[in-house]
Amino acid sequence: MTAGPYDLLIDMSACALDQAKLDRHVAKLLKYCGFADVVDRLSVVLPPSLKLQPRPEWPGVLRSSADGAGLFDLAVEEATVRRRALLVVIGPLLPSNEVLLHLWRAVHSDPLLGVAQPRFADARTDGIFPFPYSGEVPSHGLTSKRALAELPEIAITAELLSSCLLLRREVVAALGPSGPFRSLPGALALGLCRARRKGYRNVVSNRAVVVLPADPSEEAQRLVYPKLESADMTTLLDMYPDHARAGAEIERRASRRLEQLLAAAHPPALQSRRLLLDFRGMSAIHNGTSQVMLGLLDGLSSVEHPSWEVVVQSQSEAARFHGLAERYPGLVHAHGDIAGAYAAALMPNQPWALETVAQLHRHALVNIFNILDTIAWDVLYAVDLRVEETWRFIAAHADGLAYISSFSRQRFQPRFPVKPCVQERVIHLSLDGNDHSDPAVGAQAPLDHVLLFGNDYDHKDLVPTLQVLSDAFPLQKFMVLGAASCALPRVEYVPSGQVSGDEVHRLIATAQAVVFPSHYEGFGLPVVESLAYGRSVLVRKSALWDEIAAHSCLPGRMIEFDDTVSLVEGLGRVLAGLPVSELSCATALADGVRPPNWHSYALDLLDFVEECLHRTDIARWTEREHTLTWMKL
Questions:
Q1: Which of 99, 83, 91, 90 is nearest to 6 (CA)?
Q2: Residue 353: domain span
Q3: Does residue 596 lie in a domain region?
Q4: How many domains is the chain partitioned into structurally?
């Protein structure tokens, strides 16, 4: 398609130009922009006291006046009679013929698209200006051209006054007089409002880009999307109050947020992309979730990630408790509400509410969740009803789901069917003994206690197991980490959560044996730590322990039990030094391949983030946006 006939109207009234600069600008429009070959009507709104003479090298009709609204009405009248479109340019812009071709194609892609406009680039940075917000154009957050290329070719909006507009012939003919307005922007804004009320929408071509002049004396923001004078805006709203709805529609457009996120995913050269680590699920206690998060930070601190600026978003109380800023000075630490735009967000634990998912969606182009386990949903009593809808949502709308074990993946998928478009990967936590043991602690002489791990949740089965073992071994001392005290002899209780990692390691390293009676786990870091210290660990039979053993080569022994008889027999044989049947280790490791550690865990997660970012699907992002909006989130 080639551009059809159109007339050209330029408003230079607000430009600080002398006569020579004005003449040069008109010459550039006609010669270098190519309008001399396609336009035979040129109207120019002049700055005060300047004049424009006919140009002998151009045979077309030249009109000029300082009366912006009057000249606009005249240009509209002549274009209507001649059945032509009208290109309106406000300020010292030099749109090319190529831009006009894109605009022509955009406005004629639908018979009810009446006005087309391009995007605008900053000559100094080549960044694309965002759409106006609350009547103001922000001075930051420009979209890169690389990001612009990922947006749909056109965007259909309500009326939007900009410094370059192509009005199709049918709209020109329907505009009518400018009435009470004296300026061209006022008259044009009235015309755009009338066109929309007749059913003609505005279309923005994301493939047409006009570069603003690099003259530092000009305010680039004002050039892009001119603001009406206060009196003109009041007049327009008095005539058509629904114009306020047009502004509100522009502000709530989904593509506004998408542009910000695409800009974060494709930052300017030499600027790193930003990765948000959502650690708001970390509590000011020692537990399995905090261990996973700290392990990830240990791994990230040991690898170079020059393409990422990593921001750790956490609660200030938890950050102080775990000393995040002191332990990881190379990372950026943030607290409170999430701010800014990110290329990707990674939540090291599964979310518990849709509000959390919506927050990450608003601030990051790619959302990835690390599934630890599905215990809370399965046991039912531990969480409220929001968990089910949240996990079903991420199974359908997340960009990526990572799992800390195949066992967790096999539990999650049948409960919350994952759509094929969601990327999935099992990324094991560290199974390297060096990450889970302290040589100084390991050198301590064994003591006389058997250590039990758990907490008060029923699936941990801690108190019933303790009762069985206390009855079966009446002379044995037991140390219990995680249960409330109960009246049993030779049992010492250690409250969980506030006990330091060093003390837990000491209890493990000096134990005669470790019992981990849980019915249901996602990984079982206490088991891994116990194996790292060479302990014999009794675990309830589960496919998880086969997986952990197969991917590790730790010095301890994993011994399974499946009822009280096999539990008592297994512990008795360990305490007596008799042979036991233990799980085979390292069967899933190829020759020469080391088990995963925190370093490789971090690298694999970063690689997964890169993969999800590479597979970004704008249509899926838009679907997620619309779904969350429909849910009022």
A1: 83
A2: 273-430+606-630
A3: no
A4: 3
Q: Are residues 470 and 325 in the same domain?
A: no
pLDDT tens by residue, 28-49: 888 888 887 778 889 999 998 8
- Using alpha carbons, select from 465, 292, 294, 269 the residue that is nearest to residue 370: 292
Same domain, 99 and 211: yes
As given in the structure block, the two tokens for residue 274 are 């930003």
Question: What six digits make up the tokens of 368?
Answer: 């990835």
Does residue 416 sit in the same domain as residue 560? no
Distance CA 23, CA 25 (A): 5
Q: What is the pLDDT of residues 467-509, one digit of tens each?
A: 999 999 999 999 999 876 677 889 998 887 777 888 899 999 9
Contacts by 305-312 with C-beta closer than 8 Å and gap 24+?
305/606, 306/272, 307/272, 307/273, 308/272, 308/273, 308/274, 308/275, 308/606, 309/272, 309/273, 309/274, 309/275, 310/275, 310/277, 311/274, 311/275, 311/276, 311/277, 311/342, 312/277, 312/279
pTM (2 d.p.): 0.90
Residue 397 and residue 479 share a domain: no
Contact indicator for 49, 13 with CB cutoff of 8 Å: no
Q: How far apart are CA 113 and CA 142, in angstroms?
A: 27
Parallel, antiparallel, or unpaired: how do β-strands 85-90 and 164-167 relate? Answer: antiparallel
Q: Are residues 143 and 193 in the same domain?
A: yes
- Alpha carbon distance 540, 380 (integer Å): 21
Report the candidate in 353, 351, 346, 349 with the shortest Cα–Cα distance to residue 331: 346
Q: How far apart are CA 200 and CA 240, in angstroms?
A: 16
Q: Are residues 444 and 410 in the same domain?
A: no
* Same-domain check for residues 250 and 296: no
- Give the CATH number, domain containing residue 472: 3.40.50.2000
Q: Check: CB of residue 311 under 8 Å from CB of residue 334.
A: yes
Give me Rg for the CA atoms of the chain. Answer: 34
